[in-house]
Design a protein that fits this description.
This protein is mainly alpha-helical and 526 residues long. The protein folds into two domains: 1-256, no CATH class; 276-526, no CATH class. The protein has 20 helices and no strands.
């Protein structure tokens, strides 16, 4: 198989999954908008309420043509979708580039007549094809929903362009840094910084020029359905080409498996020696936990700060309030109702984190590093139980971080809620997170090569079923298939201890079953 074929083999599954997710989100959004705002008068109300709201500008960007389906789609869902595609891109590229080198697969290819530069070029070309699939899928979803073809193509490019830029950034960080986790972490940090700069520029008209300094500002300025900016399109293409050329140039300046920038502190001995598998798990997870804590803190702070503005808007727009209230089962025209919905978002973030921790364990097995621990005397049960324990404790820490940051955001918005209420709301989402973590452990034990697909696919599908099924009025039995549908919107309503207990019990059973299967099967390397 050619290097291009091998790279595409790594990408095609996640590409199709995330493209399908984006297509479903966009199609559902068009249906929801037409249902909530069927007349021109009702759409003018939206323009009046959202046209000059600084909080929403920071969250989604400056709105353009809100009185049209395309304009609302590009504003409300385009901003979120670009971040999702950018995140997929940086994770996919670091896995394909730095992940292959960390696990030694690239050594086999560069030992053949294939040069390192040709290999990287083939990998970047495969990624370019993946972003084209995302672009075409998104554009097709818009066009099939009745939106203008030209605007649909630009909307697809808006999403694909975000993938190209942040995939290019990830290609550069993969040349500079080792291991994959560090390269992806820096690329993710740049994505967070880009979002923050874009939010500041959109929320403060005097600093609107800042949106030209961030890739997420370039995608926003495309404005696909009214007065598109071809300059923004050109900037995205030029920067993507420049980043790819930079990655190719840097590849020739380093050895395979190495990074141009040495690990910070790599020459210093640790203050306390690591003597147990559990201690090693904590050491490996510590930096990741700090990075995710920052992300959860920012998410909670923003959601809490938006609470007052969102509630005031929902009190004036009963159609949208009724529509969004279907998601969590409580009206979000109150502070507690909105916070109940907000902690549903926190639950999604924590569930993804739980999955990444077990996927990391799978990567250690696939690369052969786990065998070193087993050879040194660490039993399989002890090793896997340690990983699961660190995952569960980290989820608890992140939940408390979300509680504190959301409380601070609400306080900054001029409203108020007590910290104890926020802690109860945060702890309420821990069981569903552990449920997905347990299911991922089960997949790791039974179908190790499908661990990542189960970890992220189950979370994505469950959340999509719960959110879009609720909005579209799907049968209750279908919506209740999703574990997220059984998370009470605390603090708007009381917690459901029975549902929480059942989810924890399922998590424990799944984890034990996965551990038993892991002990009976062979080590599954890549």
């Amino acid at each position: 198989m050619t290097p291009f074929g091998l790279a595409w083999r790594l990408l095609w599954r996640t590409t199709l999954v995330w493209t399908a997710v984006v297509v479903v989100v966009l199609a559902s959004a068009v249906v929801a908008y037409r249902s909530a705002y069927p007349t021109a008068i009702s759409r003018q109300v939206v323009v009046h309420l959202l046209g000059d709201n600084r909080a929403f500008d920071a969250l989604y960007g400056r709105p353009v043509a809100l009185d049209t389906i395309g304009g609302f789609l590009a504003w409300r869902y385009g901003a979120t979708a670009t971040v999702i595609v950018a995140l997929w891109a940086l994770l996919a590229v670091t896995r394909m580039l730095r992940g292959d080198e960390d696990e030694g697969r690239s050594d086999l290819l560069v030992a053949s007549p294939v040069s390192t530069r040709s290999l990287l070029g083939s990998q970047l070309a495969a990624f370019g094809l993946a972003t084209l699939v995302v672009t075409v899928g998104s554009a097709s979803a818009c066009a099939a929903s009745g939106l203008p073809v030209g605007g649909s193509l630009l909307f697809g490019f808006m999403l694909g362009g975000a993938g190209l830029v942040f995939g290019g950034l990830a290609a550069v960080t993969s040349q500079l840094l080792t291991p994959r986790r560090r390269a992806a972490g820096w690329a993710g940090g740049l994505l967070g910084a880009a979002y923050l700069v874009r939010a500041i520029g959109d929320a403060t008209p005097a600093r609107s020029w800042l949106t030209w300094t961030t890739p997420l500002g370039w995608t926003e300025r495309i404005s696909p359905f009214r007065d598109p900016s071809w300059l923004a399109v050109a900037v995205i293409l030029a920067v993507s080409i420049l980043l790819a050329a930079t990655a190719l140039a840097l590849r020739n300046r380093r050895d395979t498996g190495e990074g141009l920038v040495s690990a910070v502190g790599s020459s210093r001995a640790p203050r306390r020696p690591v003597t147990t598998p559990l201690g090693l798990d904590w050491t490996l997870t510590r930096a990741t936990l700090v990075a995710w804590s920052v992300g959860v803190a920012v998410t909670g702070l923003v959601l809490g700060f938006l609470a007052v503005d969102v509630v005031e808007f929902m009190q004036q727009d009963s159609n949208l309030n009724d529509l969004t209230s279907r998601i969590g089962g409580a009206s979000i025209a109150t502070i507690d109702g909105f916070l109940g919905l907000a902690f549903g978002v926190v639950a999604l973030v924590l569930a993804v984190f739980a999955g990444t921790q077990i996927v990391s364990a799978r990567e250690e097995e696939g690369s052969g590093r786990m065998e070193n621990l087993l050879t040194a005397g660490a039993g399989r049960v002890r090793w896997l139980a340690g990983r699961a324990l660190v995952m569960a404790l980290s989820v608890l820490v992140l939940a408390l971080v979300g509680a504190a940051s959301t409380w601070a955001g609400v306080a900054l918005s001029g409203s108020g809620t007590d910290m104890a209420t926020m802690v109860r709301a945060a702890l309420n989402v821990v069981p569903v997170t552990l449920l997905f973590g347990g299911l991922t452990v089960l997949a790791f034990g039974v179908f190790p090569r499908a661990t990542a697909a189960v970890a992220f696919g189950a979370v994505t599908l469950s959340y999509a079923v719960q959110v879009f099924g609720s909005i579209a009025g799907a049968p209750s039995w279908l919506v209740e298939v999703s574990p997220f549908a059984h998370v009470a919107p605390v603090p708007a309503v009381a917690a459901d201890p029975v549902a929480s207990a059942v989810m924890i019990a399922i998590a424990l059973v799944a984890a034990v079953a996965g551990g038993a299967a892991f002990c009976r099967r062979d080590i599954a390397t890549e």
